[in-house]
């Protein structure tokens, strides 16, 4: 392994803190070092790399194009360093303290309660505050340590770790399908049929992929809910076609035939659920332990189904 790096890794992390705060003074205060030291370390880093990272004048500090790219690598190095720290600290002491967690209602009360109970059972010195939420939550702004969410990560000061993927499939009640004037054999037919939309995070574009490519669909939404249990009841009542996850909620209904697949040869995009938390908490043994527990319960859920 090459160890003679042409620059100081610590200086790279100092640079990352300056970029995040857009201020030498704020970065110095957070790092607990004099502003002059921060400035000197940055100048040495620029000299070692042979490039300009920052532009400074009396009013503002901006990052050069190359500086932005270097910052992207600095963020990854910090994440890896904190991961090593969490691994070492986790081996030395048992997680303790309180963890505040926001979980979307679509994930389900059963899953949230099982994860919470298993976490508290495994770690007797921990305390847990779980809130089921029905809107998008920001861990920093809303005061949570951990947030479960879907979709791409927009904030570079946060870390996202995938907990599980929901494999979705199109389905309807047996009575709804039997009452149609013709069988559903093509995706385009859905554009004229009532749709039950799973609505966490707002309306989404519906697309299916099959042997003949990808199709974008625009079915008329009859009802929308941010909980799969509610959507399932609408589907069971014959109110329309919807998308359901097999591994969490529809196993029994598929077995007894009250819910049947629609267009089984066409696949919906899976829904990835991530655990999101601030960079500064990336070394927390509590968060690492909660992540492992959340993954463990998903494995149990899949085994149950």
From TrEMBL:
MF terms in GO: DNA-binding transcription factor activity; sequence-specific DNA binding
Keyword Transcription regulation found = yes
Please verify whether the record's keywords include ATP-binding: no
Q: Name one Pfam family in it.
A: HTH_1
Question: What keywords were assigned to this record?
Answer: DNA-binding, Transcription, Transcription regulation
Query: Which family does the entry's similarity section mention?
Result: Belongs to the LysR transcriptional regulatory family.
Would you tell me the protein name for this molecule? LysR family transcriptional regulator
Q: What is the lineage of its organism?
A: Bacteria, Bacillati, Actinomycetota, Actinomycetes, Mycobacteriales
């Amino acid at each position: 392994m090459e160890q003679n790096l042409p620059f100081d890794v610590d200086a790279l992390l100092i640079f990352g803190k300056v970029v995040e705060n857009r201020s030498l003074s704020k970065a110095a205060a957070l790092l607990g070092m004099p502003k002059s030291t921060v400035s000197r370390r940055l100048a040495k880093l620029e000299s070692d790399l042979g490039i300009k990272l920052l532009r400074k004048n009396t009013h503002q500090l901006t990052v050069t194009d190359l500086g932005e790219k270097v910052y992207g690598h600095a963020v990854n190095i910090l994440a890896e360093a904190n991961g090593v720290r969490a691994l070492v600290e986790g081996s030395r002491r048992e997680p303790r303290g309180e963890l505040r967690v926001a979980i979307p209602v679509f994930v389900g009360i059963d899953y949230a309660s099982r994860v919470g109970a298993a976490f508290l059972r495994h770690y007797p010195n921990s305390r847990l505050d779980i809130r089921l939420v029905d809107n998008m939550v920001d861990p920093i702004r809303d005061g949570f340590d951990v947030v479960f969410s879907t979709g791409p990560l927009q904030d570079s000061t946060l870390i996202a770790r995938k907990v599980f993927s929901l494999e979705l499939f199109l389905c309807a009640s047996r009575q709804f399908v039997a009452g149609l004037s013709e069988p559903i054999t093509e995706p385009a037919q859905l554009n004229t049929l009532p749709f039950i939309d799973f609505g966490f995070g707002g309306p989404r574009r519906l697309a299916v992929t099959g042997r003949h490519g990808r199709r974008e669909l625009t079915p008329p939404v009859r009802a929308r809910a941010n909980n799969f249990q509610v959507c399932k009841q609408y589907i069971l009542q014959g109110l329309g076609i919807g998308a359901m996850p097999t591994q969490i909620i529809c196993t029994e209904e598929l077995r007894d035939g009250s819910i049947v697949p629609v267009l089984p040869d066409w696949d919906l995009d899976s829904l990835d659920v991530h655990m999101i938390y601030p960079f500064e908490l990336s070394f927390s043994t509590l968060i690492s332990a909660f992540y492992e527990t959340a993954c463990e319960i998903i494995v149990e859920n899949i085994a149950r189904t």
